[in-house]
Amino acid sequence: MYNKIIKLIIAIAIIVFAVYQFTEGYIGNGIMLILLSLIFIFLYFKNEFILLAFLKLRKQDFDGAKSWLNKIKNPETALVKKQQGYYNYLHGIMVSQSNMNEAEKYFKKALSLGLSMDHDLAMAKLNLAGIAFSKRRKQEAQKLLSEAQKLDKQGMLTDQIKMMKDNMKQASGPKQHYGAGSSLRAQKRRG
């Protein structure tokens, strides 16, 4: 994997060589070199390992996605800020299956670094709402859930949001005990 600065240096060097090719009259070579430099510019903004990890996640291959993300040794130097957000977002999705505390840390870091798509922001906030609700932080969960609902403009998460709201309503309902009295005194009187 190339450092983000090295990608730009390679792109600039290719563009300089393309200009040289244009001045020498090799127009076809210059055009091909410009197209080649666009690949490095694209990879500056969209990291290749994060793209491959997203492809593995679409196939529900968590181990494959984790192996691609593990190839990024130092995310702070290798990735731009938004890519670091997606790096943490992907780690949060993968870790949420086993460790909610660690997943919460990854999702919060992803939100602080920023995600470029509203759908991804909504998904991260929905996951954080679920984690907050499971830790009995109901007000925080409701706030995150309403933010996720506002960000979900395409309606891709409406079912999950509705299910989470229903679960929150059921959990906040009155706890009724059916049968005889529930106090310890009443049970001792009967027994």
From TrEMBL:
Coiled-coil ranges per UniProt? none
The reply on keyword ATP-binding is no
Q: Where is this region: Disordered?
A: 164-191
Top-rank taxon of the source lineage equals Bacteria
Q: Which residues cross the membrane?
A: 5-20, 26-45
Keyword set, alphabetical order: Membrane, Transmembrane, Transmembrane helix
Could you tell me which SUPFAM superfamilies the record lists for this protein?
A: HCP-like
By what name is this protein known?
Membrane protein
